[in-house]
Amino acid sequence: MQVTVNPPSSNPDPEADVKPKAVNGIVSITLEDGRAVGVRRMGPMDRMRMCSIIGAENSKNEIYLSMAVPAYCAASIEGDNIPRPQSVLALEAVADRLGDAALLQITLAIAEHFPEVDLNRIVEEFKKRQEIKN
Asked: How far is Cα 79 from Cα 65, in angstroms, rounded to an integer?
């Protein structure tokens, strides 16, 4: 009789398939440029506050939202904590500090790690905007 307690993994490197886990609603990701960024989950109250900050017109603007949502969700950049922006200027400063590529990567991380947030439209709008720039 043969008993297998821990079946062997089909993947020789068990760390390769491990996704970062959200701790206190924040997941840490590494951007393509090597920067470490903390991404926080955006709850209903956060969405309401962000819409209040950016105003009614920008809340309907998908291009603006494609940049505002990931900037608002950034919790840290390279270990520097980023508080939730309380004004449009603070939100735009975070977006500018991150840059276009990082905003897209954060949007994709939100969709992957916090799937309850429907970001499909925002991701598609961001991709369209990137195609227009190139």
From this structure: 25
DSSP state of 23: B
* Mean pLDDT of the 54-64 span: 91
User: Which one, of 3, 70, 86, 84, lies nearest residue 37 by Cα?
Assistant: 70
Strands 74-77 and 36-40: antiparallel
Beta-carbon contacts of 39 under 8 Å, excluding residues fewer than 6 positions away, are: 26, 27, 28, 29, 70, 73, 74, 75, 106, 109, 110, 113
CB-CB contact of 18 with 3 (8 Å): no
Amino acid making up residue 51: C
Inter-CA distances, 45 with 31, 51, 74, 84, Å? 27, 10, 16, 12
Distance CA 53, CA 75 (A): 17
Residues constituting the chain: 134
Q: Read off the pTM.
A: 0.72
Contacts of 133 (CB under 8 A, 6+ apart): 100
